[in-house]
């Protein structure tokens, strides 16, 4: 495994060196498109070889018959789109056009990829020598491995590169990527073995990839999961479709604004895993004042956090559970009806567990975040009846720095948080409160704490409760910190606005 990690790092360093002056946001489509092309070409070659040998179930098969590939859930790759054909011509000046033609040919013969693959390689601005070098580099991935191992490695490299591009893009990168350790934690908490999985802000599909890995690691069958997603950014949607195709995951992912045009209107999901954008002010809330989803109160037009919470609640099946990443301010805000909505959701018994996260887990924001775990029916018999309880976990002291900017949860951190939740939730669990880390509170206790859901208020780390600090003092400290951190006016202004929203201030 460490060898693979080193390989991923080396590949990234080499690929990144080749991007020259190109912006990471553009470059990612060039690189990820090529990795995808290499992946489907390898998968095709693997089956092509077996068909050509014609042994056993493949006796008498035609290796150039596209239906043979379709039957085995493999994309058919026309001859001039195969990796060897392109790599043999990587040094030719027309290589860009050859790659675009290859992408076109693959889309024409595989309808599920229509409109998904990037066709940007013939762009005159793209350095064709660098493109040839990149093709040679990607050609080395999985070169010495056969079949499944080579494909699995390409899948991991695709995922790793997604994370690295998110880091390189900074704030914008968070729009398509949730750090892997947070996704792993959400999946481990909810344990999606079978049923319908939904993410209404699915980015590049990381929640679905981890759900599939979870099922495989626990000897389940991936066919027991049905996957539904929605993404408003067409470019990000293409990344997701490639990411899932590499994994062989069959998902119904639609393009569109989840609030204005819910493409899965009648869906009731057994599991929801989501990291919607934090504190969005322009979510078209003024057009949705009478929406059926606002069962617990109409969310303010200036902040989408409680619109997301209620959208996901509305989407839960009668026994469904959800894990949602939100800004910390969502746990104690009283701005624009949010306090009332939170109170109503708590009284309805929807809140199962709250986890406060350490800072620096995300590439795209300095705002502290938390996890909301919702359960539609806490007395459904599958687990212990927890109707009058909420579990609070303060995980702010966990996590390990992976570079000078970012932290991630280790496997032990994920295990600690997950085991705490499961021991509390499961029948015959051996849960115990741990001062400073976890505490079970009754609904009455939460009511006595003004319906605030910050774990620090309950487990004994009181300093987490932001509203105890005078607003002027908080703003002065925040402004000084941000001024030190950022030098460019526009980035400073945007970050200040985000942080203001996180403490309940509306524009």
Describe this structure in words.
This protein is an alpha/beta fold and 507 residues long. It is built from 17 helices and eleven strands. Among the domains are: 2-170, N6 adenine-specific DNA methyltransferase, N-terminal domain (Ferritin), CATH 1.20.1260.30; 472-502, no CATH class. The longest helix is centred in the first third of the chain and has 30 residues, at 24-53. Mean pLDDT is 84; it is low at 464-474.
Outline the secondary-structure elements.
Elements: H1 2-17, H2 24-53, H3 66-71, H4 83-87, H5 95-109, H6 128-138, H7 147-169, H8 180-190, E1 195-199, H9 206-217, E2 225-231, H10 234-247, E3 251-255, E4 269-274, H11 305-315, E5 316-327, H12 338-347, E6 351-356, E7 369-375, E8 389-394, E9 400-401, E10 407-408, H13 411-425, E11 438-442, H14 443-448, H15 455-459, H16 471-485, H17 489-502
Parallel strand pairs: 1-2, 1-4, 2-3, 4-5, 6-8
Antiparallel strand pairs: 5-7, 6-7, 8-11, 9-10
Helix pairs in contact: 1-7, 2-7, 2-10, 8-9, 8-13, 16-17
Strand order, biggest sheet?
3-2-1-4-5-7-6-8-11
CATH architecture verdict of the domain at 2-170: Up-down Bundle
Q: How far apart are the first and last residues' alpha carbons, in Å? A: 48 Å
Radius of gyration over all CA atoms, rounded: 24 Å
Helix segment count?
A: 17
Order of helices and strands: HHHHHHHHEHEHEEHEHEEEEEHEHHHH
CATH class of the domain at 2-170: Mainly Alpha
Give the CA-based shape.
elongated
CATH topology of the domain at 2-170: Ferritin
The CATH homologous superfamily of the domain at 2-170 corresponds to N6 adenine-specific DNA methyltransferase, N-terminal domain
Strand content: 5-15%
- Low-pLDDT ranges: 464-474
What is the residue-mean pLDDT, rounded to a whole number?
Answer: 84
Please give the largest β-sheet: 9 strands, mixed
Helicity level, as a percent range? 40-55%
Quick one: how many beta strands?
A: 11
């Amino acid at each position: 495994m460490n060898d693979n990690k080193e390989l991923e790092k080396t590949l990234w360093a080499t690929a990144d060196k080749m991007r020259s002056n190109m912006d990471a946001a553009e470059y990612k489509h060039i690189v990820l498109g090529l990795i995808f092309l290499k992946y489907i070409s390898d998968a095709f070659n693997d089956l092509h070889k077996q068909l050509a040998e014609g042994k056993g179930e493949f006796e008498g098969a035609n290796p150039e018959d596209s239906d043979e590939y379709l039957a085995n859930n493999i994309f058919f790759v026309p001859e001039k789109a195969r990796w060897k054909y392109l790599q043999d011509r990587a040094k030719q000046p027309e290589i860009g056009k050859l790659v675009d033609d290859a992408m076109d040919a693959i889309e024409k013969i595989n309808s599920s990829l229509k409109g998904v693959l990037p066709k940007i390689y013939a762009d005159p601005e793209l350095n064709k020598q660098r493109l040839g070098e990149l093709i040679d580099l990607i050609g080395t991935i999985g070169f010495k491995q056969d079949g499944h191992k080579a494909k699995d490695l390409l899948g991991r490299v695709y995922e790793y590169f997604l994370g690295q591009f998110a880091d390189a893009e900074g704030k914008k990168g968070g729009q398509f990527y949730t750090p892997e350790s947070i996704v792993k934690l959400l999946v481990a908490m909810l344990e999606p073995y079978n049923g319908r999985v939904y993410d209404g802000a699915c980015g590049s599909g990381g929640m679905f990839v981890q759900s599939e890995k979870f099922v495989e690691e626990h000897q389940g069958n991936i066919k027991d999961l049905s996957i539904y997603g929605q993404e408003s950014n067409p470019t990000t949607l293409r990344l997701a479709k490639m990411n899932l195709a590499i994994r062989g995951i069959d998902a119904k992912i639609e393009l569109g604004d989840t609030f204005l045009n819910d493409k899965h209107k009648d869906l009731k999901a057994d599991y929801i895993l989501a990291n919607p954008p934090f504190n969005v002010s322009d979510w078209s809330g003024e057009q949705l004042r009478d929406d059926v989803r606002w069962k617990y109160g109409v969310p303010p037009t200036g902040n989408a956090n409680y619109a997301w919470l209620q959208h996901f609640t509305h989407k839960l099946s009668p026994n469904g559970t959800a894990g949602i990443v939100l800004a910390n301010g969502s746990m104690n805000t009283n701005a624009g009806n949010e306090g009332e909505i939170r109170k109503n959701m708590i009284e309805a018994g929807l809140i199962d567990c709250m986890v406060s996260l350490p800072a620096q887990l995300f590439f795209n924001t300095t705002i502290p975040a938390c996890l909301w775990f919702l359960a539609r029916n806490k007395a459904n018999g599958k687990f212990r009846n927890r109707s009058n309880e909420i579990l609070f976990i303060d995980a702010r002291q966990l996590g390990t720095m992976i570079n000078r900017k970012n932290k991630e949860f280790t496997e032990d951190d994920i295990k600690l948080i997950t085991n705490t939740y499961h021991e509390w939730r499961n029948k015959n669990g051996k849960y115990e409160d741990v001062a400073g880390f976890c505490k079970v509170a009754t609904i009455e206790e939460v009511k006595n704490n003004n319906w605030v859901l910050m774990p620090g208020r309950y487990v004994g780390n009181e300093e987490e409760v932001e509203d105890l600090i005078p607003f002027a003092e908080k703003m002065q400290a925040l402004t000084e910190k941000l001024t030190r951190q950022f030098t460019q006016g526009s980035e400073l202004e945007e970050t200040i606005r985000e942080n203001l929203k996180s403490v309940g201030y509306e524009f």
